[in-house]
């Protein structure tokens, strides 16, 4: 499960996938699952001649396990992406007051990438473990920490004026921003390489 443009230095703006599977049928697997941020997943069958186009920097997706060979042609179109606004997540004090509005804003913003591993930890883990298969590699990966989240005071320009009646306004949970750091990936095992070659990354 991944974004085709996870951040700098990638310049991918648009992902275009053309499926080339004339004999594909239900039950063959290999479907593309699009995961719009904080929305219901969408499953796309890899039918012959089908073209799928989506934004590379804001559509999380994965390929479901395939029982047969699955073929596609993938083209990425570069563009002006990964601006400072897209690569940093600063939530204003109103973020927790109107959850729906915040969710809608993140849905349409590339800054959602900073939160995706925290929002979908189980899905990320399952996606990786499915690819790894069994054995020691799977057990080792299961212990791997996927993301670290640190809460810290938001920049002053996003903060409301201090509330003189609050006992400790600096700890008001409605004012925060989030930084995420992703640890270096462990070495890829032979099982993972086999999985990658069997099910093309799209």
Architecture overview:
The protein has 202 residues and is an alpha+beta fold. It has one domain. The chain is 22% helix and 20% strand. The chain is built from six helices and eight strands, in the order ββββββαααααββα. The strands form three sheets. The chain has a three-stranded antiparallel sheet with strand order 4-1-6, with no helix packed on it. Helix 4 packs antiparallel against helix 5. It is globular, with a radius of gyration of 20 Å.
The number of E-state strands comes to 8
Q: Could you tell me the strand content as a percent range?
A: 15-25%
> What is the count of distinct domains?
1
Contiguous runs where pLDDT drops below 50 for at least 5 residues: 145-154, 156-161, 166-202
Structural class: alpha+beta
Gross morphology is globular
Can you give the helix content as a percent range?
10-25%
Q: Tell me the distance between the termini.
A: 10 Å
| SS field, number of helical segments | 6
Strand order within the widest sheet? Answer: 4-1-6
- Report the sheet with the most strands, covering strand number, pairing sense and barrel closure: 3 strands, antiparallel
Mean pLDDT: 76
Order of helices and strands: EEEEEEHHHHHEEH
User: Roughly how many Å is the radius of gyration?
Assistant: 20 Å
